Amino acid sequence: MEERNKQKVFIETYGCQMNFSDSEIVGSILSNDEYNLTTDINEADYILINTCAIRDNAEQRIRKRLKELKALQRKRSWLKIGVLGCMAERLKDQLMEEEDNVNLVVGPDAYRSLPAMLKEVESGVKAANVILSEEETYAEIDPVRLGSNGISAFISIMRGCENFCAYCVVPYTRGRERSRDPKTIVAEAKRLFENGYKEVTLLGQNVNSYKWTDDGDNVDFPELMKRVAEISPMLRVRYSTSHPKDLSDKLLEVMAAYDNICKCIHLPVQSGSSRMLKLMNRKYTVEWYMDRINAIRSYMPDCAITTDVIAGFCGETEEDHKQTLDLFGKVGYDYAFMFKYSMRPNTYAHKYLKDDVSEEEKTRRLEEIIALQGQLSLASYQKDVGKTFEVLIEGVSKRNKEQLFGRNSQNKVIVFDRGNHQPGEYVKVKVLKCTSATLIGELAE
Ligand code: 5AD
Ligand code: SF4
Questions:
Q1: Does the CB atom of residue 417 touch ligand 1 within 6 A?
Q2: What is the pTM of this model?
Q3: Which of 79, 267, 295, 412 is the most exposed place for a label (fewest CB within 10 A)?
Q4: E strand intervals along 14-110
Q5: Closest ligand to 56 CA?
Q6: What is the tally of structural domains in the chain?
Q7: What is the CATH number of the domain that holds 223?
């Protein structure tokens, strides 16, 4: 079919990095003889929304967006709307009943069926596929890099989650945990490097459970990291996310041994109270968590540590909350993602626990954590003033065209006068001052 006759697909993504990575897989599946991707929503024949279900407000935002899209559909009667991802998986057909302008519902393991499903929708019927798979990893699909800066890319290394934290919808929306063939992961990273990329982030819900066995080749996560890091010292490697219960010394050893493995660990704590952690089914105590923090610090004193935390989970008392603040103070996180507990239908907490902390109380506790983290972030950034870092330049600063921005190994953003440097280069930058979210420096060479 000629280019101009191809139908145009616009993809909009919400939620976590995994979802952004999935959209790149969807983009690849739909870049073929019959479909073209477009970045202009006004010329789209199909709008696909890749959704998140982690908290109620994520879903509300998507509902609102679907209502807005009705206006576009009124102007262009042929326009079809598809819902992909976690909200599609959670609500299934119900979504098409509740949102009358949705033509297509596709869960995270069913993206290969998209071309056939678009055909069905084209012929005027509604279509849904939310079958979860125990094997699908989209291993050999080469993702199109959507909205990429050409420098940094995500690589999905595993799918699903079997931890069943009491509050979390992910095991239900993304299904069984499965790892992707390491050969395809290393090949994808190599391809990216050969195409000028300088940084890859290996993604999985719990990367430490990565495991592959093939003809006597046993590959665990530290081994996979090693293989990716050895592609080139000029390729930075990051990963997300690891569960504290299985953050191993072996992984820390590998991280410490390679300069190009970035010194930043995202280690979601969720609560600073062992009693809450037990209710959450996190499978570790505060003592265990602190032991892991100490291990990180002893292998890599310069490693940044970031976290996720939930305020106001079922049964959380003022004392539990104080313990969370306490733990934040002790760890001194460089950055944190902080949330109010949001009850998710069908999770363990929904079935067996009571969402009994009032909305006002959740808000107050969250605000206290945010205020404390603000001070901790500022302290962490202030400690960097006077230090010199290697920075991978990512782009031109939005505020000032004469300045560039990039990140150091610890994932902190640094802004500096550009000299004659370009995005994609590594430079040494000395930090002169900071805010609680940005370092400001000057070229050190
Ligand atoms: N309510 C609030 N926050 C949640 N998270 C996961 N489920 C919920 C929920 N029901 C948070 C956790 C997790 C992050 C991705 O989202 O902190 O680490
Ligand atoms: Fe949710 Fe726990 Fe899985 Fe993370 S590891 S997605 S918090 S169940």
A1: no
A2: 0.95
A3: 295
A4: 35-37, 46-51, 80-85, 104-106
A5: 1
A6: 4
A7: 3.30.750.210
